[in-house]
Amino acid sequence: MLMDALSATRPDRTKPALLAVRPDNWRLAILIGLIVSIIAALSLPAAISFWVVGAMAALIAAAFVVNAYRRRYYGGLLVAPAIAVLFVMNIFPLLWSLGLSFFAYQSNQQSIRFVGLANYVRVLTNSIAAPDNWHALFNTALFVVLTVSAQMITGFLLAMLFAKQFPLRKYLLILVLTPMMLSVVASGVFFTYYYDPTFGILSYVINSINDGQFILMDSKAGAVGGIVFADAWMWSPFVMLLVLAGLVSVPKYLYEAAAIDRVSAWRRFWSITFPYIRSLLMLALLFRTIEAFKLADLVILLTKGGNDTMTISYHLIRIANEQNKTSEGAAISYIMLFMVIVLTNLYLYLANRRNREG
Fold first, then answer.
1. Residue 224's pLDDT is what?
2. Phi, psi of 114 (to 5 degrees)
3. How many angstroms separate the Cα of 151 from the Cα of each of 96, 134, 220, 322?
4. Structural contact between residues 151 and 292, judged by C-beta atoms closer than 8 angstroms
5. pLDDT at 240
6. Can you give the pLDDT at residue 134?
7. Count of other CB atoms within 10 angstroms of residue 73
8. Measured distance CA(142)–CA(140) in Å, rounded
């Protein structure tokens, strides 16, 4: 009798059969949702299939909620609103844009038709738009190398400086961190005035030394240098913070022991300091490389792509928004996503190999 009473109070944790019509059968809900969504996408107009797919997603979500409630997975129910917001704001647009990359669709037209991999082939092969794509990708690689190198070197040197105690250190640290707190638009407008050939500070200083008007953005080298300097000015403090976190974590007794043994400064850095900041340097390298691939705002504000400074992100914006080639822009964005994933996995491979060696 006691065992029967205890079994009666326990929640039902038996898994329902796949075809059992129950409100908590999430497996059946996923199966129905996928079948109905595929049929709707292939046979119904886009305006109707959109709402059908949305209804199927709501059906699947409801099945998960009922299943969690009946099985008393209250933790899952508590995070369900956050997961729903994440799905609506991030996952669904990602999947929707992925689907658009396989269709011929323009935002200023109502027609849509399935073309498979034609958009990817058009972007990657010798088509009319491909030269612009590859040239913008080359410019992006150039900016990635230059901006990330400048940020890593500058941030590392600043971290080595602020790791020591000196007068006015706190105030100078706040001053150095200020660019990172500004918006990109504010920084871009500031450097627009800074580089201005008429009343800019840079032009005024150089004009006072040499005769004639100095225009930094008049050549590709000057435009690239101006963008790299502005981006490094903004994000070198980010690298500095990561490296500084590693520097302050180095035990002091290691330096004291090295001083007693009269170890050289280079040997102290390579044997004591660098192992503590190596992983943080690689993390900063990964973050800044990913962000450099998305460089578009400074290019728009400073050069608008002129003087051969068009990046792949700005090229994507022009294709998708100005030329209304929505599907082709989606294909370019997923090619960029693939490159970023490759770089991220390369970073993880190197990090894991160093950990195994250590």
1. 92
2. -80, 130
3. 35, 25, 21, 32
4. no
5. 93
6. 84
7. 15
8. 5
pLDDT at 177 over 50: yes
Alpha helices by DSSP H, listed for the chain, are 2-9, 26-43, 46-70, 74-86, 92-100, 118-124, 130-162, 169-181, 184-194, 201-209, 220-247, 252-260, 265-268, 274-293, 297-302, 312-317, 326-357
- Provide the whole-model pTM: 0.78
Average pLDDT, the chain: 83
Do 123 and 312 form a contact (C-beta atoms < 8 A)?
Answer: no
The mean pLDDT of 39-46, rounded to a whole number, is 80
Please give the Cα distance from 97 to 330 (Å, whole number).
6
Tell me how crowded residue 222 is: count the other CB atoms within 10 A of its CB: 16
pLDDT of residue 9: 46
In this prediction, residue 11 carries a pLDDT of 46
The pair of structure tokens assigned to 328 is: 């082709």
For position 158, what pLDDT does the model report? Answer: 93
Look up residue 355 and give its amino acid. Answer: N
Is residue 228 a contact partner of residue 302, using CB atoms and an 8 Å limit?
no
Is the confidence at residue 8, as pLDDT, over 80?
no
Bridge partners (DSSP) listed for residue 112: 105
**Contact yes or no for 217/252 (Cβ under 8 A):** no
> At residue 147, does pLDDT exceed 50?
yes
Contacts of 196 (CB under 8 A, 6+ apart): 203
In this structure, which long-range contacts are made by residues 170-177, counting pairs with CB atoms below 8 Å and at least 24 apart in sequence? 176/237, 176/240, 177/237, 177/241
- Could you give the CA distance from residue 309 to residue 299 in angstroms, rounded to a whole number? 7
Residues near 229 by beta carbon (within 8 Å), at least 6 away in sequence:
150, 191
